Amino acid sequence: MDFWQRYRAIDARDTRFDGQFYTAVRTTGIYCRPSCPARTPKAGNVTFYETSAAAHDAGYRACKRCLPEAVPGTPAWNVRSDIAGRAMRLINDGVINRDGVEGLAARLGYSSRQLNRILSHELGAGPLSLARASRAQTARTLLVSTSMKAADVAFASGFSSVRQFNGTITEVFAMTPSALRAAGRHHHASARTAVAATALTLNLPYREPFDPGVFDFLAVRAIPGIEEGSSASYARTLRLTHGDARFRVDYDADAPRRELTLTVGAVDLRDLSSLLSRVRRLLDLDADPVAIDASLGDDPRLASGVAAAPGIRMPGAVDPQELLIRAMIGQQITVAAARTALVQLSESGSDSLVPADGLQRVFPSAAEIADTGYQLLRGPQRRIDAIRGAAAAMAAGGLDFGYGDDLAGLQAKLLPLPGVGPWTVGYLAMRLIGAPDVFLANDAAVRNGIRALAQPPVGAAEVADAPTAGPLSPDSRSPDFREVSPWRSYATMHLWRAAAAAQSAARTKSARIKSARTKSVGTRTTASKKVSP
């Protein structure tokens, strides 16, 4: 967006752009979100920044009225595969808190000086400033949404001391932590508090519209004992840097704001900011659904699906190593068969730190799978050996990949592994790094989805009779959906949904035919008995 496009957005107070850029006003020394209700400043007094950290470094403080830190994250960090985008994914995951700037630079393959220069040029702030802004945003969320003690908020947000926490909050927001807590709750009367000494409950901001189908996607793949899912909730355990954690997300479509509520049942406070980041990635809460739907809706093959499910999300992942194992097990077999195999494999996982709500275990670590877990797998020995080999490489540290990679990096690291092909890498790119433009052309469900969409429209009464397969549409548009780039990953989600709907319709039709045949046989049998001597 150029200056005037952004200026028109703030003049219209368009909430779609909240978190995508920040508006700083020289005459007030304040920066705001685009939808701030204050009077639109004169264009000559406005400077736009890519990040809140850049506004901080330029000497501006956050607006007390619109609370610019209380917004969804920037969708550009998934769309962009450059150093800046990769760095922001890692910063949001807490890498600087754990490993410092040197650790971040090493993961990206640069020196700390080079990285500082690149980020300052691209985003207007260096890695330390960006990390500080991320900590401030996490701290604001915890202060407003929970009853945690200020000292606990400080360490949970990634600050190294309470003094540093107090100083940063006062500098960024021009308010003490206690004043920020009081002001935030005044602005958000529905803010939730901690429900128990070991549990935190807070709301997750997102851009509307939001399609809750992401919960169905996760639910059908949930591993009992590790995950639980429904059409409006998802819960699981996971292993983080400092210990095991447990969380639950609930979606209330009937609430005035259609709230997404996160309840953290157990976590080491040092891992909390990482957990929040991973939950947001899991549900794709930083996406820009209006832009995505506008592009997909222009394709006649997808238009009806977009209209029926606006705001579709692309499920992410909370553990890179786990996702690779799940992908390797799930390739070339059905979702149900993969789930059965994963249930067997999960028996090798250790017990959760704090079992509760039916969640007793964490997904087995790479070392556990390599040592004994592979023995629980069934199927071709070649596949089992490939899974064990990948697990052993991850456990030994020879295979290191994660949120800071791009598609080319994932290909270079994973394709040499036995049992890993282009589908596996593409699937990981979609779910791990949020790559928006992946199209899994050889995926069976994608092909079935294309066939389902190619069928002529049917009335509501005929849906159950719609066939699940047929010739591909003679539409002149490209079969790999190049026209909707860079959102082909989201097109893939629509195709998977179309394939699942067609399969469900086929099952319904089959059951209805079987029922009708059973009734017919029963009627003939009864009639035969009546005329028998």
Please bin the fraction of helical residues. 40-55%
Known CATH architecture of the domain at 1-191: 3-Layer(aba) Sandwich
Number of beta-strand segments: 11
The CATH homologous superfamily of the domain at 1-191 corresponds to DNA Methylphosphotriester Repair Domain
- Major sheet attributes: 5 strands, antiparallel
Note the overall shape.
Answer: globular
User: How many alpha or pi helices?
Assistant: 22
In terms of DSSP E residues, the strand content is: 5-15%
Rg is 25 Å
pLDDT average, as an integer?
88
Q: What characteristics describe this protein?
A:
four-stranded mixed sheet, alpha+beta, DNA Methylphosphotriester Repair Domain, 48% helix, 22 helices, 10% strand, five-stranded antiparallel sheet, 533 residues, single chain
